[in-house]
């Protein structure tokens, strides 16, 4: 196969798009409505948290960071996907492909880190309530939000840089969006270094936050079993939406990792197209709806804001 440096690849072809003919307009409309709902719900909750001083507490500030990340992740997928659905030729310029990889991978990394920080906040609130305000100071909140965003941006940026320097022997990606591992599989030379780095980054950005989440919930369960009824009610009311968000996102990411690493030819083509999009399309809408409906303070503030308008 002829070797071409990825910096000289003008575009990548996305081969997973199905030939839907007139249904393309239907899918375009569905995705457009979904994108508008994602923007509207997340922006609404961000505004509610920012303008109401009574919500300027650690839990709500971490939620605000989570909603900003939902907007960021959907921005890396939906505009491009909407254009591609109505296109006859599904190609993407190489720089935009690398930019999309950066956006999607940082979104996933920040999401796990944010959920881990939120689980730590719930652990302190439930297991060490008397020390909560002394531990969750403004400086610590700033630090926790910083480590939620800055390390993923740096790690994913270096991942994209390594991929951009690969010599490629093709430009066809069997997906509906750009994926780093798909580009690595196009490499002419042995991409062992890229695979090892990608696995290390996956461990740091997925396994470490998930370990923090599991540890904090084990401690919360211990306190719930040995604590009062009031403690159990507080744990259920504040931890249920967070736990549902973790499970939902982990399910979507797990399928994406399995599809990238293993042969999924036995899975129907439509499912192979839809499932990788699950965590990128459903999570940004799932979180604001979940927290907006389940947290009474946010729900009441949203009603006041909408009635005022």
Automatic annotation (TrEMBL):
What kind of membrane protein is this, topologically?
Multi-pass membrane protein
Superkingdom per UniProt: Eukaryota
User: What keywords sit in the KW lines?
Assistant: Cell membrane, Disulfide bond, G-protein coupled receptor, Glycoprotein, Membrane, Olfaction, Receptor, Sensory transduction, Transducer, Transmembrane, Transmembrane helix
What residue stretches are annotated with the G-protein coupled receptors family 1 profile domain? 41-291
Keyword Disulfide bond in record:
yes
Q: According to its UniProt record, which protein family does this protein belong to?
A: Belongs to the G-protein coupled receptor 1 family.
Protein name as annotated: Olfactory receptor
Naturally occurring in which organism (per UniProt): Poecilia formosa
